[in-house]
Amino acid sequence: MPPLRRRGRPGLIGTMARTAVISGTATATANAVTRRQAARDQAADERTSHEQATFEQQQLDAAEQQRQREAAARQAAAQGDQTAAPPAPDDVTARLLQLAELYSAGVLDEAEFTAAKERLLA
What we know:
- Residues 28-91 are annotated as: Disordered.
- The chain is mainly alpha-helical.
- It is built from three helices and no strands.
């Protein structure tokens, strides 16, 4: 007599096997999603820190350029740069504004500011 084959629902072992496969698949999928999210977060953090470092370097470069411009303005004011051609009218306004900024920042004292202003307006 051939073995009896069961029809209908799977037995206890079949149900346990199916549950184990479903549970394993769900766990593997959840782990993969978690790893992918962690990798994205890490990449975003690295980008943010790189952008922050770039921004800080740009700020330092801008500050250094400003210091160089101020030093050049002080030197020009101290030397009286009389060999230069008279500046254009728009340039005079820009230079006066720059001198005013240097004076208000404390880079130029009142005598230097007045002397440089007189040279520009002469």
